[in-house]
Amino acid sequence: QVQLVESGGGLVQPGGSLRLSCAASGSIFSIATMGWYRQAPGKQRKLVAIIANGDSTTYADSVKGRFTISRDSAKNTVSLQMNSLKPEDTAVYYCNAALKPTMSSHYYNYWGQGTQVTVSS
Description:
This protein is mainly β. Helix content is 0%, strand content 57%. The protein has no helices and eleven strands. It starts with a strand and ends with a strand.
């Protein structure tokens, strides 16, 4: 069993900052990528940021320059530092990992339970 557990969501004023963290645990042989997606009410889940082995990163255009993703491969954790938050950043944020549970398995996508981020004055 693999679990992704997120923390760090909450309510923040526009222009403020939040840091999200996610820890992967359980049967994990290797992790290819870890990342963050978000889903606003009535909208599809979309990529926010992703970090791969070698620490290459990809960001949605809407968060470039404001959000920073980082990863601790030894601890199987990923974090998202969110600065200059805007009301349009309000969404449920989901942690994602593409990983192999065992040496012989394929890579599978795993998701956290989601954490609410609300940007409002």
